[in-house]
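Researcher: Structure for this, please.
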Amino acid sequence: MSNDDDLRVDRVTSVQALDGLEPHWRALEELADCNSLFLGWDWQRLWWRHYGGERQLCVLVAWRDDRLVGVLPLYLETHRAFGLLPVRKLLPIGAGGDTSPDDLGMLCEPTVGEAAGRALVDHLLHHVSGWQLIDLVDLPVGGILVRCMAEAFATKPDLMQSTGVNRITYGTAFGLGQLPPKPQPQPSRSHRPKAPPIRTGVWRALQPCGRKGAD
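Model: Predicted structure, token format:
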């Protein structure tokens, strides 16, 4: 658990605890300044029912007193890099399986949107352990998660290192000039047309920070 002023951030890791969020999540949907059905309770819960499998829930929730004001739905899975090396990867719920929506990210109440977003990102970067890669894909351009992640790196440059074990990758929504630009491929000797840019690429390595254990 972590605190940002009067906000409390908790982590949900079990299906039972996730189901307990339903009435709060639905109430937040009615207030949130977001028209993405992919962040709604029905779609998120349905996706997890069909694709959760051996993946591990890591849903971050921000509370003000007993009112849910922010949700960052993530999950942790083991991915084998190059088919060999196991890598523990965090992704948004909804990315993976055979689905690829474009409006994932974070659901926040408008009156506390930025504060809730900052609290959730701070908890993600400093208090969630066990991951080696955060793969932020399928995010809307200009979304609150994009802004809060960019702000975290701009105000805390010590988080960003050129080497390290943990990495963060970004989808096309991060191509806003707020973060270091993705490396551009060099022209080939044959001057063939450049291949389209990949949707996700590693920009920076993130050194482990904060406490090593989970809250």
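Researcher: Any notable elements?
Model: Residues 161-165, 171-215 have pLDDT under 50 and may be disordered. Residues 113-127 form the longest helix (15 residues).
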